[in-house]
Design goal:
The chain contains 2 helices and 9 strands, in the order αββαβββββββ. By secondary structure, it is mainly β. A hairpin with an 8-residue loop joins β3 and β4 (53-57).
């Protein structure tokens, strides 16, 4: 209980200090937070990543919509988490696992045909 009180929690009136006033709490950039939380999946609309970068993905997406589908030709996975991409919405269709720390051109049925994506859950 004393350790909790030292960090701003008062069990009598349930008040909590401002998050950033607690020692060791930092304001992280989106990129740093993504790296810590498992990483991101990035796409480009041209081979070898030379085209326009499409938004970074963090978390699961049941449907990427036209922003990605029929456009993604290249990928890059940052961080330590693999991703699974699907040719169909709602995690259906053909499946491809993209390994953490890799990048490359999407080929075959996946070139310009990514409709949903999710990070691979960490083993518990």
């Amino acid at each position: 209980m004393s350790n909790i009180n030292k960090h701003g929690v008062n069990m009598n009136n349930k008040q909590i200090k401002d998050l950033y006033s607690i020692e060791a709490v930092q304001d992280l950039s989106h990129e740093a937070a993504a790296t810590i939380s498992g990483g991101t999946l990035n796409f480009s609309d041209k081979k070898d990543g030379k085209g326009a970068r499409l938004n970074n993905l963090r978390g699961s997406f049941r449907s990427l919509g036209s922003r990605f589908n029929n456009r993604a030709s290249w990928y890059e996975v940052t961080g330590k988490t693999d991703w699974i991409v699907y040719t169909g919405v709602n995690f259906t269709g053909r499946i491809r696992r993209l390994k953490a720390g890799t990048k490359g051109n999407l080929t075959g049925p996946f070139d310009n045909n990514i409709a949903s994506a999710m990070p691979v859950p960490s083993p518990t």
